[in-house]
Design brief:
By secondary structure, the chain is of the alpha/beta class. The chain folds into 2 domains: about 30-285, Aldolase class I (TIM Barrel, Alpha-Beta Barrel), CATH 3.20.20; about 335-404, no CATH class. It has helices at about 65-80, 100-115, 135-145, 155-160, 170-180, 200-210, 230-235, 245-260, 280-285, 315-320, 335-345, 365-370, 375-380, 390-395, 395-404; strands at about 30-35, 85-95, 115-125, 145-155, 185-190, 215-220, 265, 270, 290-295, 300, 305-310, 325-330, 355, 385. Strands 7-8-6-5-4-3-2-1-9 form a 9-stranded mixed sheet, sandwiched between helices. A 3-stranded antiparallel sheet has the order 10-11-12, with no helix packed on it. Strand 2, helix 2 (about 100-115) and strand 3 (about 115-125) form a beta-alpha-beta unit. Helix 2 (about 100-115) packs parallel to helix 3. The chain is globular and about 55 Å long. The relative contact order is 0.14.
């Protein structure tokens, strides 16, 4: 929700208002994303909009909730005619748990006061395993947090070192235990394909994660982003680039192990113990519902309008202190762009893409995708494009076939 590079777009109004004629739909689910842009160190692979203490240009972490409160108040004014309680709230980053639990609970309270939080809402906090305690997680749970997403990444020290991750892998177990004691759902996040990581290393990480009995598991292939430290190391020949075939083997391994442990895939990179433990916040992105992203670099989407905030925390706070929207730009995607996005996102999830959302000229391609073993034939007969496991490995090729 807060990549480092902002897209091009049209100028955004200083008051944050939606374009004339755009009215939020009270029947569409509404979610809230709160970006916490702070990290102790910058991981070599990370391209997210995050800042270490030395990069904050005098902006203080302890003042950050004040800036977010101002944007929440602005959003309440913009959306005031269509009150919708938030069905999901997600604290992402960065490392949200670098802030005290009291700061996070204050922000959650501001969201509750401005919009309301729906009964049974999913409220997630991302966490580094070294930055949580039983007490801090109890405070979050008491404030309404329901779920913690722990950045495990790997259980193998040399793999963590290759990723510039500084946490002690032994602390993952402690963090999971603390979350359980606080009554929270637990997700563990893994990354595969790091330089020097073998298939055996990956098996160790996945088996270690599953042994902790989380409710949800994410496993993402390492992507080399331009401008990162890792990209520079690969370009210089210091470390090898990820191997596509090895990453495919790693994906099949995590899918096998997760399935054997009782997890179902519901999105290409995500598995859960039953539908209730899926990340409903992320599903909202893939389904294209409405959300407001608070914080520097955060993106929002309401009724087909997209906008994104200025990147640096200092610029973000300054604009809000002056009563100006932090939005740096916005766009209303045209019909072709909207179709491409719907195919790209909805084809990734287990419920699949309705065939009638595929451009009419490309629907004949579905039969070929079934023949190639990329799309489930039974689901296609029922009107939905659902990826096979081979299709999940080649999801980009499926999207090209359905849109080019």
């Amino acid at each position: 929700m807060a990549p480092s590079a902002l897209p091009d777009g049209d100028p955004a109004p200083a008051d944050g208002s939606l374009p004339l004629g755009v009215t939020p739909d009270a029947d569409v689910d509404f979610g809230v994303y709160l970006h916490i842009p702070f990290c102790r160190v910058r991981c070599g692979y990370c391209d997210f909009n995050t800042y270490t203490a030395e990069e904050l240009r005098g902006e203080r972490r302890e003042d950050y909730p004040d800036a977010v409160a101002r944007e929440i108040a602005l959003a309440a004014r913009v959306l005031g005619g269509t009150p919708r309680p938030a069905r999901t709230v997600f604290f992402g980053g960065g490392t949200p748990t670098l802030l005290p639990a009291a700061a996070l609970t204050r922000m959650l309270g501001d969201v509750r006061e401005a919009f309301g939080i729906a009964e049974g809402a999913e409220v997630t906090v991302e966490a580094n395993p070294d930055t949580v305690t039983v007490e801090s997680l109890r405070q979050l749970a008491a404030a309404g947090v329901t779920r913690v997403s722990i950045g495990m990444q790997s259980a193998v020290p040399h793999v963590l070192a290759a990723l510039d991750r500084t946490h002690d892998p032994a602390n993952v177990r402690s963090a999971v235990a603390a979350a359980r004691e606080a009554g929270l759902d637990v997700s563990l996040d893994l990354i595969y394909g790091a330089p020097g990581e073998s298939l055996a290393d990956w098996r160790t990480s996945v088996e270690t994660a599953l042994a902790l009995e989380p409710d949800h598991l994410s496993a993402y292939a390492l992507i080399i982003e331009d401008g990162t430290k890792l990209a520079r190391r690969i370009r210089s020949g210091e470390v090898p680039a990820p191997d596509d075939d090895l990453q495919a083997d790693m994906y099949e391994l995590v899918d096998d192990l997760a399935s054997a442990a009782g997890f179902d895939w519901y999105e290409v990179s995500n598995w859960a113990r039953g539908e209730s433990h899926r990340s409903h916040h992320n599903l909202a992105y893939w389904r294209g519902t409405d959300w407001w992203g608070f914080g520097p670099g955060a993106h929002s989407h309401v009724s087909g309008v997209r906008w994104w905030n200025v990147k640096h925390p200092a610029a973000y706070a300054q604009r809000l202190a002056q009563g100006i929207s932090p939005a740096a730009g916005r766009e209303i995607p045209d019909a072709d762009a909207t179709t491409l996005e719907r195919v790209l996102l909805q084809s990734r999830i287990r419920e699949g893409l309705p065939v009638d959302l595929v451009p009419a000229s490309r629907r004949p391609q579905v039969a070929g995708l079934i023949a190639d073993g990329l799309v489930e034939g039974t689901d296609a007969v029922r009107g939905r494009v659902v990826l096979t496991r081979r299709g999940r490995l080649l999801a980009d090729a499926v999207v090209r076939a359905l849109t080019d």
